[in-house]
Structure formats: C-alpha cells, structure tokens
Amino acid sequence: MNNLVILPLLIPLLAGIILVIFRQNILLQRWLSMVAILSTGGVASYLLQMVSDYGIQTLAIGGWEAPFGIIFVLDMFAGLLILTTSIVSLGCILYAFNSIGSEREQFYFYPFMLFLITGVNGSFLTGDIFNLFVCFEVMLISSYVLISLGGTKVQLRQSIKYIVINIMSSTMFLLGIAYLYAITGTLNLAHLSVRIAEVGQEGMLTTVAILFLTVFSLKAALFLYFWLPGSYGAPPTAIGAIFGALLTKVGVYALFRMFTLIFYHQPEITHMLLGMMAAITMILGGLGAICHWDIRKIIAYNVIIAVGFIVSGLAVFTATAVTGGIYYLIHDMIGKALLFLLGGTIIGITGTGKLKEMSGLIRNHPLLGWMFFITVLALAGIPPLSGFIGKVLVIKGTMEMEFYWLTVVGLLSSLMVLYSVMKIFINVFWGETYLSKDKEKGTTYGLLFPCVLLTTVSIALGLGVEGITCYIEQAANGLMNPDIYIKAVLKSI
Amino acid sequence: MKPNDVILQTVTKVVTFIILTFAVYLFLAGHHEPGGGFIGGLVITSGLTLLYLAFDIESVRQGVPVDFKIVAAVGVFIAVATGMGSLLFDSPFLSQTYGYYNLPIFGETELATAVLFDLGVALAVVGTGVTIILSISGDA
Description:
heterodimer; A: 493 residues; mainly alpha; 2 strands; B: 140 residues; 5 helices; 67% helix
C-alpha cells in the first residue's frame, strides 16, 4: 500500500473542485492551477524514483485487494507518462494565462483543464479496465467542454462531430468490456491477463481484442483519424496544444497496455493488424500534412503521423522497438505541445493560418523562429535532439524482425514530417518582412516563456538521453514481461 | 391573462413535502435496501423541479437561496474529502469504517462513513440536475 500513488489523480481533482467554487477570482484560478500541476509533477518524479528503487507501486482503493477491488498501479511506463503530462500541462497552462482571454477564464477554463489532467493521470494509473473507461470519460467530458468553451461557430460545429465520434467509441469500449467480462469474469487488468493466459487467446478473445483495437484506434487517431484534423484546429491554442499532446497519447497508452499485458498471445493477428494500421496512418497522415497550406491542419496531421510511428514500435513487439516507442511517445508529447503552442503564436501574430499570406517573421521574432526551427529538427529526428533515439530504436526493431515495409514507411514518414513542418518554417519565417511590428494582430507577450520551457525540456531530453535510459529500459522491460506487473498486483497468485 | 394555477400550487406545497421526505428515506435506505445517494439526489431534484414548474424561478430562488453550481462542487468535495480522510489514518484511499452508537432518540444505530460519501454524491446530483434545468429553462 502506498497512498502517494493516488496523488497524481487527487491533486488536480481537488484543485479543480476548489476552483469551481471560487469562479470569479481569476488570480486564485491561475495560481492554484499552477501549484497543483507543479506539485503533481513533484509527486510524479518522487514516485518515479521509488518505482526505480523498489519496483512497481500499488494502491488497493479502500483496502480491497485485487482482483476484487479497484487497484491503482504505478509502473515505470505510467510514471514516466504522468511526469511528461505534468510538464506538458504546465506549459499549456502558462500559455493560457496570456492567451485564453477573461471570458473563458471566468467560465471554468482552469477547472476543466485540471479535470482533464485528472482523467489523463487516472487512465495512466488505473489497473482496472472499467476504471480505465471511467477515467477516459472524465478526460473526454472535460475535453468536450474545453473544445466548445467560448462558443464560436467553428468550435460548435467541430464539437458536435467530436462528441458524436467519442460517444460512439465509448459505447464500443463498454461493449468490449462487457464481452471480456462475460468470457473471463474479471475486470482487473492483471487478473484478466492471467485468465486469458490460462484459456489461451482463442478466436473469440481475438475478436474482442480487435474490438478494443478499434476503440482505442478511434481515441488515438490510429487509422480512424478522420475526426481529428478538424477538431484539434477549432479550440484556442492552449486547449489545442493540450489535446494534441495528451488525448491521443492516452489512446496510445491504452493500446500499449492492452496489447502487451492482455492480448499478447496472437501477435501474428493483432500486432500485424496494428502494424498495417500504423503504416497506413503514417502514409495518409503524411500526405495530409504535405498537401495542406494551413498551419493548424499541418500540425494536426503531424499528430496523426506520430501516432502511427509510436504504434509501429508496439506492432513490432520486440524489446528494442517497444523501448523506441516509449522514447518516441515521451518526446512526442512534449514536441506536439510545443508545435501547437508555436503554431498558435504565429497565428496570433499574423491573424491567419494560411501559409501563403505570411512571410519574413524572423526579422521581428528571432526567438520564435529559432525555437520553431529546433522543434522542426527534433520532430524529424535529427541526431542531437529528442526525436532521434526513439526513431532509431523503432527502425532498428523493424529491421530486426524483418518488417522492411514498416522500416521504409517509418523513414518515409520522417521525411514527410520534416518537409511539412519545414514548409511552415520557410514560408513563415523566411522571405520579405511585410508585417511591421505595429501592424501585427497580436503580441507574443508572455507567450514565449512556456515555449522556451518546453524547448528546453525537449533539448534536454535529446542531450540527456543517457540520464533517462535506465528508466525507459525498466518501463520497456515491464511491458515486455507482463509477469512483473501481474506479480505486483496479484500478490497471492 | 395570467392563468390561475392555485390548485397546482396548493397541491405542490403538499406533494413537495412528501417527495423530499421520500428522498431522505431513499438516501438513508441505501446501505441495506435499494436507494442511495444518486437516486436520493434525483428525487430531491424532481421535488425542486416541481417547485419551479408550479411557481416561477425567482420565487423559488428566494425560498432556496443557493447557487446550485456551488452545491455540485461542494458535493464532489465532500465525496473526495471522505476518501482523503482515510489518508489521515494511514489506510488506503477511500477506506470506509462504521460503528454502532447509542444516539438519544434513535437508540442503537449503525453509523458508517459511506453515508458521508453518499451525501457528497447526492449534493453533486442535485447541483448538476438543477443547474441543467435552470440553464435550459430560460434566458438566465
């Protein structure tokens, strides 16, 4: 028992509740949400060190031991993701201070950000599939509010689409849980894993696995991404950034969890399917990113490409590839938040998202320009920066398992990422400066600080790879050997 | 012409009383019989809705001068706080306990901390339900 495990969920939840009560006090809203996220990050890093020293930390809620009660499990994978979530959400909240506007701030913006983080952290922590569903809903309902908050026309139009898709996929999630419960009679993830290993993953269970694959693909924008490009461009930048960095990644996390812990007996069907979907996602996402001339669309398609790439690491299903997938997942959460924030700042300055209507921003905004350049290189995976090591390991994994088609698509996707984001850089920052300082639509006042923060983290992640290698390898080791997880949860079995 | 709804209003005055009593009964019955915080909260909401239907929003607001958004938040806070109480006693989050006490009027009674959690649920349900009804019912 370790009550600290619940804190990454509890701190944002409590802060959110308090902020609902004190709606008018904007200063309190800002400070408390910042303190809440900082302390969540602090607890997360403390817990990470504990996991690294003493193994997986668990907490049986209410003292009811698994498999009968709900159990919260903090393994290395979840811990790393929670820490990354805290960093990313700190960046987004700081960005929101100067950009979101007081009408939105007065209508529960910060509480819903915090509830979103509650849901995300809960999804990472939980060891129970129904509780995973509940945490998904906490996250999604907050995101429904955030996507429509402010009520502009485009937001309302996109939020209907977003809500309908997510309600559909949540219903399918619930159906999948019902089938799984009917077959195995348990809801605890570790116990499910044991039961399925006992009966073997027959046709019926593989079908259920594919149902879950569909559900989480909808959530993670893996192949079934048609709802994403519109939805993520609609809300204000700070909200779009936290969506792009966290929401799809929770789906990716669920895919990793389900297909390494529970449905790992028939990789020739499930993981092959994952691989094919990942390849198609990368190709179609890449085409989308290349063909568009609107910043919002290009960034949204980049989210899709990255999801494909991370999942291809899972699809190969070797220790190397999964390690690469985790590296890339962490890099990508930070990188995508950064890309959204920088893109939003550019749109704020020029007042338009269309690339052809802007040029020469580097003269007045050198810091913004060079940060964007570094982000571009990091996303494409240029060696000293953070995207590199993950890409190398995933590519190495695909070659080892002789998935050469996945290697080719993976490398090609890097090229498409580089082209599409470099297109933004060249069109926006190079060329003749015809937008003088006083003609700009908005300022960058206070907006660059969170970007600098995230860029620093991103660079540090690239240069300091050695420092986090031991954690990531432990996480990958935990994913590749479900026995470790099961032993930590079900102590008696 | 203003419609004369004296019958509706008179009946409401009696019926609301019965509904709210029934709500409290359902709320307290939850541990051993069907009932509990959610259904208790919904029945309270239905009683309040009846008041809103029979009278106008302003007069009900004068009678029940609370902001239901804050009621919902306080409800969730109570539910979380009962969970956090167990942190003080070094037991897992959301642990419950109960005991038997001799109360003045009721005699020997079982008191459980789960009721406090249910109270939070009930307040959250009331707050949410009434907030939804009030926000879609008019321009306010």
